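The instructor's notes for this session suggest beginning with a concrete chain rather than abstract definitions. Hand out the sequence below and ask the class to guess, before any prediction is shown, which regions might be ordered.
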Amino acid sequence: DMTALKLSGKNRAFLRSMAHDLNPLVQVGTGGVTDGVVEAVNIALEEHELIKIRLGQNFEGDKKEAAAKLSEANSADLTQIIGRIIVLYRPRDKDLPNRPRIELPRERK
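After discussion, reveal the predicted structure:
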């Protein structure tokens, strides 16, 4: 299922606050969003769930397009774009030792 994740504003705000202290794990360079970049993002999401991606100084594409492409290619939520930083979130499929899953706040019905 390759549909992008849909999160509520409350959950997105929660993730944004968590992402604040993260360092970018993937950098997009001159080549733009290549298969290699998509794969690196996939691996980073699998390990961390919530990641930052930096659009390098040499990246010349449209940052919103790049963010949308990375989000869709990895079935991840495009949580935020700040300047040249993209924040993506995707819940992990499997449990990893020593890496607790991110618990999103429950929605009030």
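Then share the key points. The first helix runs from residue 9 to 19. Helices lie at 9-19, 35-48, 63-73.
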